[in-house]
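Hi R.,

Here's the chain you asked about this morning:
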Amino acid sequence: MRVTLSPRAKKLAAAGLVGVLVGLVAAVLAFLRPRSLEGIELWTYDQRAKVVARQGVASSDIVLIEVSEQDIEDAEDKLDVTWPWPRAMYGYIAAYCKTAGAKVVVFDWLFQDRGQYSVGDAEEFAQAMRDAGNVVIGLALTRDPLVARPRSGAWAAPLRTFATAAEAETAAQKLLAWNTRVFVVPEGAGATVWYGGKDHAEDVVAAWRRMSSAEELAELFTPPSDPPPPGDAPPGDAPPPSDAPPPSDAPPTDPAEPPPPVEPTPRQLTAAELATELTATTIITRRDGVVGGDGGMRLERKDGLDPPLAVIAAGPARSGNVYQGTDADGIMRQHAPLVRHGDRLYPSLALAAYLVAHPGVMPSLRDGQLVLATGIDDDLPVTIPLDEHGRFSLRFHRAGAYPRISAYEVLRSQAQLDEGQAPAIAFERLRGKYVIVAATGQALRDVRITPLGTPVPGSEIQATAIDNLEAAQVIRRASRGGDAAAALALCTLVALGVTGVWMATRKTTIALAATTAITGGSLLGYWWLARWLFIHDGLWIGVAIPATGAVASVFAIILVTSAAERRNRRFVQEALGRYTSAALVKELMEHPEHLSLEWGERRGMSVYFSDIAGFTSFSENMPPEDLVRLLNDYLTHMTDLVLEHGGVVDKYIGDAVMAFWGAPIPNADHAAAAVRCAIAMRDRCAELRPGWKERYGVDVFARAGLSSGDAVVGNMGSKHKYNYTVMGDMVNLASRLEGANKAYGTALMISEACYEPVKHLVVTRELDLLAVKGKDKPVRVYEVFGEVGKVDADVIALTEAFAAALALYRGRDFAGAEAAFRDILVKNPDDGPSKTYVERCRHLAAEPPGDDWDGVWHLKEK
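And here is the predicted structure, written out as tokens:
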């Protein structure tokens, strides 16, 4: 069954379609998230983040130890330590925090340089970290790979063979700080430490001299003093056993003095032995790298790893990546807990701290989430939702939300503790807490801009990330599909609402006010929904693109509605043009105030009346459908000519046509336009007559009358129905002239007022001084033959002969006039006016008029 929609339903459907189309465009944009619109979206994110920061409560288990400019001054004045501080001082901080019961000590620091102190200083810091067991330091994972450093040769020397690989690696770590390569080569159950990696054997010996003379490495290079196995006799030239008394002539020796180091004998290592090289990178990879997949996400790759100083890299429980990217506007909003380097995943500094605080927890990526579980079978793992790039958005707290402690006061507290005094920083302030140590001095601090709009130290952002991980409360962004669906829904609903308003009222001001209210209310409601979800559920749904799409949808609806109104207006104008003049319709469209009964004015105009001769008689014998087709065809052609000549079709009365010129658009040449149109209509009728005769069996002849003069034009009728028409004596005269054609056998008759403006344009002949029925005042009337230059010479001769005969008639020479008219009929036997005057002259000759005869002929019929 075919369903036909009403015009209103069609408008609603069209508006809904427009809303859906705009919504689809918005949905595509929401899915693609173009950078040009993403900046606006990030701004809306910041506004929501500020609300969360005001309402949220930061964790009390996170403390910041700041190395400020004041701490640097205090350390110099009271501890006689200048900046940069020895690494051992950071070890003191770690030791005090451990003693106070801190959960984790996080150094938001990159210990990559050797510093200005001895190698032992770095080793002391590393040992302090090992002793604490809960220290995390920064790791620099960079987007681009580091510049490749050339590696030296394969020459090396053995240090010692250790019983276990752990002991060998501990010894090897001490050598890493001395600018030498170290290799831990497995030997049975233990391992042998080799040092060197030089191009020449001499270089290895030089390295041995440098390191063996260092006090910090003395015990490593001292030969072991283990006794020989029991039962083995010393060779003849070998020294006596260590427990044998020295010879009487031998000088006394210090039993505590170790034997001097023995110069090594270098050799070239094999490829397999070179592969056992111990570096800061291998330490970090083995300890911190996580083997696992990307969980279907496009994780950021970090192709460069710039590790801390090797001896320091080996000290902490973990290290974590400190480099977090910012958005295009330079604001830090997101945090990547894991990034990929090589074939492994590496935790951020915050996640590394979390893992140290939760021993046994292993991170993994599954189903778009960071899963923190103690094993595969963990039933209640902590899950952190991540975006497609493996990041979560930080749930920020107000600036300064985490308590701060002076680094100098911590150092002083450690000194007080060593001296048996009560420390300045009570243990309660650090017990069970994450402690983040970072520089905040003006020239040292790592400052970042957050959505809150104020610069904050990078350590505070690290604290925020740890806080979010501990609470398992982050800001998760809706999926691209979710944002696309929201954009489509909002645009469609707003479009339907606005369309309903425009359909419900015809007043533009009310419609615009309602549109503004609906649009504003929808946007405000959507904003409050987005804000509520952000605050209470941590869900970040897109606002910028859906809101922009909704506004665009409203504009599209207004444009579509306006276009529909314009289309309807054109349709009405064209339709009205079929009932009346297109010029009149245009005038009324431009001046709606004329659509009142008060609109009327007097103008100089020309009016045309025409009628088909004998229409009543032959219409009675024609089938109705043929009559309608004939009449419609005739009226169409006549109307087209009126419109072409700038006229207005006033009305059709059966077969009669009434038209006028000079209104609603003023036209000084209205008479000329009307006469030319009348000639064209007569000629068109003659052209179509044979076809009509063949098709309908009738001859169509039209008689027309034209008059010019002043008339009243405007709306006339009742308040229920009125027409734009003309009224006046001139109009009545035109109607009478159309009927007068019957008495004279003519087709086109014009009044003297119409003749005067066009007499130089058309060929005419004066017909009579005529008083039409109902009028006493006579009017001189003329028959129109055609335009000057477009009529035959015979017609010109006819007009001249007729004028001469008419002069005899008016001179009361009725016999001479009759003879003259008969002469005309000899050459023009069908000349109607001559026939009329022959009869009239015969009558007047038989009954001559009185002396008061003025030549006026009074018509007795219309």
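One quick note: The mean pLDDT is 87.

Cheers,
M.
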